[in-house]
Every structure is written in structure tokens, then in C-alpha cells.
Queue: 2 jobs
Job 1
Amino acid sequence: MELSGKKVLVFGSGISGIAASKMLQTIGADVILYDGNEKLDAEKIQEQIGGAVTVILGELSETIMDSLALMVISPGVPTDLPVVNRIREKQIPIWGEIELAYVYGKGDVLAITGTNGKTTTTALLGEIMKNYKESTYVVGNIGNPYTSVALEMTDDTVVVAEMSSFQLETIDTFRPKVSAILNFTPDHLNRHHTMEAYMEAKKNIARNQTAENTCVLNYEDPETRAFGEKVKASVLYFSSQRKLKKGIYLENGNIIYNVGTEELICNVDELQLLGTHNYENVMAAVAMAAAYGTPLDVIRDTIKVFGGVEHRIEFVTEKNGVAYYNDSKGTNPDAAIKGIQAMNRPTWLIGGGYDKDSAYDEWIEAFDGKVKKLVLLGATREKIAETAKAHGFMDIVMADTFDEAVDICARGAVPGDAVLLSPACASWGMFKNFEERGDKFKELVQNL
């Protein structure tokens, strides 16, 4: 689609919307940035974008809608809002920020989705590709908008993209050379309403792939295993539980890659990452890189020095014999289960936050005698407390503020204990995002 001189509406004033607006200006589009929140500062938004952009807040008129060639919707904007439906009824194309970047960007795309593990897998794959290809960009849900760098890309570029369900809802022609779905567990049901709709959004990552492409899937997740029977792409499975005839698997602590001949990648003792969930992330990244044609030596050298990502079971420090871990990225119960499973000390657990309509039963069951005290805060604290008590866990303390939660743990923990921030909830309402929450935790811990 030729957008030069055309009127394009960008819906959403977050980092994706700002990046998309800047890119559209560069290619000569007439940009309107729209946000339904009329309390925002229009001048401030204009300053962030620069150049000539029209900012509309609150209501969007029919006249403006009728003048549009395209709407670019940010991932944080629900696709079933009345204003979006009105634009859809007018048969105006609706793209996500990802689709816009893909259409105008160049190079090969390696894209990852899944409920848990995608940031670690994306970061690791990004490091592998940087060691193989000079022009590598790591974009998407990991925090770097795809549109912010799309116009810098060349035919020799590799794009490593972390894709959320929100981003994958609004693709059209997006087709990664290699895709991966790591797992499916309930998340964002307040937005998608059903588990089926959530999974369908994520499955879009492989929707346009052909037999020339590769889709990497988790053999141990029944949904992703079944999906492997339906995709048009060539499928590579990974497994932490069994030997595979084709794919990558864990056997006696060894990661083996087998697509005709067995290749030892490494032993897990050579990795800096801990836990079976991380070994699965490593296998997914290795499978994607190998499917793309990256030499195994480059892959081996990279995975052995990779230290993980910030805010994901991140060791902060030890004070007075107590180890502090930041797992702020544990924004849903399944992710937070991985945090608990990684602990090898009696643990003071800080949980609670924004309610995404999650159920917390499996998280509580995963405490498995490891959790010494559960310190709860945020909108979900009563709901989690009720669930915990229903499962026979009574060692619960309520905190009114984040600072108080950390202070309770610091005062109560004894040498040999761990304090783990792994909330099982989103941060909204208290913090802008999980990164801000994790940074605050680390600041409070360092100041103890």
C-alpha cells in the first residue's frame, strides 16, 4: 500500500503509537494520532512525535473516519471497541504496528510468541543472530517498537521479534521465515475473553507461513503439539521430557539437536540459565537459529555465555544472609510458578497486582512447601488470599504499599531465606509496567 500523501490514523499514544507515527511521517503520510483518553496532553504527544501531526483526543468524528486510507492500531487498544468497529464497517484497512513495520521493513523475520518464556528466548536468539549477522534488530514486545527501526533495514537484515497476542491479532501479510510458539497457558482473558480466542491470536504467527518456512513448537504442550499437525510450515519440535526423532530435546542433561544426525549442542551445566523452563527457552532459540542456517559453533558459543534477562528470576543481592530475587516479569500464575520452582531456599513471596481474570489455584499448589510467607498487595490480594486459604495455605500478610511489602519481608526473613518478587499479576494500577515494578524492587532492596 502506497501511503505517501494519504491520511493515516494511528490509534494509541503509547510507545508503539509514537514510533508508528514517526515512521509514517518519514514515508510521507498525513498522520493523525488518536487516543480515546481526552485527559492526555496533546501538545506533549506532538512534541514526542515531532513534525506536522494532528492529535485528536476523546471523540473521533465520522468526517475524519471517512477521510482515512488506513488505521494503524497499537497493541494496547482492544480491537472490539465501538470506534474500531465503525472504522471496520467503513472497510478501511486496519493494521497493527507490526504489520506496518513488516510491509515497509526488509530482511528475514524470526518471530517468537507464547505465554511464558518469550522474552528470554527472544533475547537469547537476538544474541545468537548478532554473532552471526552484522545487521540484526531485536524488536516487538521486548520493548523496542518494530516501526522505530523498520526503515533502517536492508535485505541482509535479520529481525528477531517477540510477539504478544495483542500484536498478532492485527497482522495481515506478516510472515516470519522462522516462527515459534513456546506454550499456551491462560493469560489476558480480560482482553480476549476466552482461552480459544487467546490461542487463536497467538497461532496467527504461523498463519501466512508456507512449506519453505519453519515453525518451532513445544512437544510437551498439548495445544502446540496438536497445532503442529495443522501448520503449513515445516515443524521442528522441542522437548524437555523425551527423545524426538526430529527436533531438539533434553536427554541426561544434554541438549541434542537432531534433523537427520544427532548433534550435541551442550550440557545444561555449561549454561548460566537455571531451571527446566529455561532449558526449553534455550532449545527453542537454538532450533530457530539452526533452522535459519546459523552455524552450530556460533550457537554454542553464544548460549554458554548468555546470562538471562532482567526481571526474570534475576538475582539482585544477598543481605544479612537473605537472597533477593526479582521476578517482576512473572505477570501471570504460570510464569510465577516457574519463579517458585527455581527457588532452593525457604521463600518469602511478594504477590498480587492488577486483576487479569486469572485463577491462582495452580500457583498456590506449586508452593510445595517452599513458601514460608505470602505477602500480598494490589487489587488481587483478597482473591489470592481466599484461593490460598482454600488450598490450606494460611501464612499470609497483607500490605498496603509496595514499599511495605518489601519491608515486611526484610524484617521477617532470616539468614538462609529468600525473598522473591513474583507477583503472578500485571503491574498496572501501581506501576506503568513490570520493568518499573522490578526496578523499584531492586532499588528498595539495595537500600535496605
Job 2
Amino acid sequence: MPLTIFWIIILILYFDIKVLKQLDASIFQEKFTFPPTQRILFIILSSLLVLLSLLKGRGIIFLFFCILFIFPVYLLRRFRMVQALEKIRDNIASQTRQGDLFLALDAFTVLIIWLMGSLLIVFFIQGMMKSLPNLNSELGELILTALFSSTWMVILIYFSVRKYVQPTFLTIIGLKKGDRSWWKVTFVPTVLGIFCAYWSSLILMTRHVQPSTPLSQIIEGTNSSILLVMFLGIAILIAPLLEEIIFRGYFFYVLKRFKGQTFAIIFIASIFAILHFDQYWGDQTAIFIVTVLGFTLTLLRAWTGTTIASVITHYVYNTGVTIIPIIMIMFVNPPYFEYYISYNQLAHEQKEKLLLESIERQTDLVEAYNDLAWLYTEDGKNLEKALHLIDKALLYDPQRYTFLDTKAEVLYKLGRLDEAIEIERQLVKKNPRNEYLKNQLKKFADGFVESDHKQLEKIDGGIKEIEMHLN
């Protein structure tokens, strides 16, 4: 991810410099460019750092170097040039080519300020987490970071465009219906959202193996129901509106005027997909789906001429991919649906009965094998059967984080502590910030030490008994 951010920054700076130069080449030469000798040294130094970072696999080193050293130099020169350009801005009509360039310049200013502000937000949230135990987890940090950084972007966009009398803020972000028909703006987007949500859910739900992704590991490692509800609430109620205002609202409008509609469609859809890659890394199908979704939403925005259409589709899609899998389970496997919905109200025997029925009805429902294995482990009975069940689940999906943790718990209850510790140690190594896994590893390690003490006491008792017989 750091290298992805780095290349996005480079892309932003490339287009930013291109716009600055096109606005006024003479001012650019005077206020922005380095002398030839400094330029050569700068390029050599930057190239060496990039090479070292890539060779050592430490892309984040160069990222922070850019932010801490190169970025301030760039911003200082950019500020000098923008100040000089402001003198000619008032004489430029907003609908001319020069007006389009100034609009693009404002957009790059928004991106640069957003980037610096987002870094501060990340550091602030990481520090704040320690004083908020209910939110102190990877999911809590993800929720707050996404919420604050998206809101920060929308605020910057608003203040960037409010100075324009025409076009207005709502026009630029595309939230005006105009004379477009409701059929085109609401009905078609709603049907399209349902269609995309259904096929995405069907593709993802009918797979025997659900690949582990960074996002799935964060969600599965969260024991807080409050955080899970917050995550779903943001995904369904807030994210579609904010993402559409940012991507297919403001930046689509700017890029369409700056480089044309075709470029805007390809660029916005691609960036939207790339920014989601980190969440779904390891699941190529999910990455393909989010890429198709990005292009679908952007093409819809271009076809209808309003962001309202893509907002509706995005809302329907996010709601659909949350609800449709539950409906599928309800019809395909009613016992598992009942187990899932009524978990807290069911007794141990009822849970066992429903899970056994679920497996009988759907023999490849790996989640049911895992749930039943965990149920037996909690009860401390049928542990060998629990081990058989979780091994069967792992045959379908050998890398699933929750399945491996279940197997470690079963082995711990069976007294095979060294095997349990090794599994949990590998999980902690892959998920170093997961507090649940750390607690599991500590529990297994403490059990191992306690077992050693008991063995020593048993040996000591045996030695004393032999000595008594000898005496």
C-alpha cells in the first residue's frame, strides 16, 4: 500500500506540474523550476532513494522522505507560482480553456491539502485510540480514518468551489437533477444496483473457498458488535454519498473539462478500483467486482449527466450486498439462518442440532463445520470430533484466519499445546495488531508453562516416592 500511495502522489504531481506550466510558461519558469544543476542533483538523489527503497522492500521509506523533505520544497515553489497566477485569474472567464486549467489547479490543491491533512488525521486517530478502549482495534481505526478523511475531502471541495458564482457547488458535484427524467435518474440506477448486487453476491457466496483479505481479517478479528454495526452503518448510509461526491461528482467534473469525458471515465473508475485493492488484496474475484462496479458507476454518471444516478446505484448496491447473502442463506439453508439469527437465544443443544442439520443440508458449508467445532470446544466435549470438523473446513479453505484459530483452540483443549502455540504464533505474525490473537497466544503460552509446572511436580512426587521406598 505505501508504494501505491507513492505512485498516486507522483501521478498527482505530474498532472499538477503540467497544469501549472500550461497556465503560464513564463511564470512557471521564473517561480517554479529549479536551476539545471539543482535539478540534476535532485533527480539523482530521488532515483537512488527509490531504487534503495524498492531493493529493500521498504517503499514506505521513500514515501516518508517525499512527505518530509521533497514535498515541502515542492509546495513552497508551487505556492509562489499560485500567488503569481492569482493576479491573472480574475481576468479569465470560467468557461474558457484557461478557466478549465484553473479549475484543475484548484482540484490538485484540494488533493495536496487533503493528503497532508489525512496524514495528521491518521496520527491523531492512532494516538486517540489508546483513550478509547471500545474503539481501540484495527476496525475502529479503519472506521474513524475513512470517515474523517472522506469528510475532510468533502469540506475541502466545498471551500474550493464556493468562490465560483457559476457553476454552483451542486452543479460541480453533480447533485442537480435538472430537466432529466426520473426514469433515467432513479428507476434505471435502482434496477442496475439490484442487478449488480445480486450477481456480486451470487458469485461470492457460491464459492467453496472465501479467500482471506486484509478487510475480512480485520472484520473477523473484531469482537465488538458496536464496531460491526458502525461499519455496516457507514458502508450502507454514509460511504456511497461521500464517495460519489468525491469521485464521480467533483473530480469527474474537473477531469471531464480538463481532459475530456473518455479520460475522466477511465481515470476515475481506475483510481476508485485501485483505492479499494488494499482492502480486497488476495481475492482476485472481489477486486474484479469492485473494478467493474467502479466503471459501471462512472459510466452511469456520464450517461445521465448527474451524480444522483450513481449515488442511488451505489446505495442500492451496498445495501444489496449486505442483505442478499442473508436472504440466500435463508432460502438455501434455513437451519443455518436460524442459528445465525437466533444465536444468543439458543441453548447449546439447539445450536448443535441446527448446525448438524445445516451440514446435512449443505455439505460444503464450511462455516457450519467451523461453528460446530468451536461449539464443541467451548463445551469441552467431543474434542476429537471438533478436530475432525475443523480439519474438514480447512480442506476447503486452508488459509481462513478464523478456521486456523479454531483449530488452535481445539488443540489447546486437547493438551497439544505446542501445536496450538505454533498455529497462533503464525497468525499473530501475519496480523501483528490483532489483540484477540495476541490474547489467544498468551493463553496458550501460559497453559504450556502451567503444564510444565505440573509435569515437574509430578516428577518431583515420583522421585520422593522412590526415595521413601529406598529408605
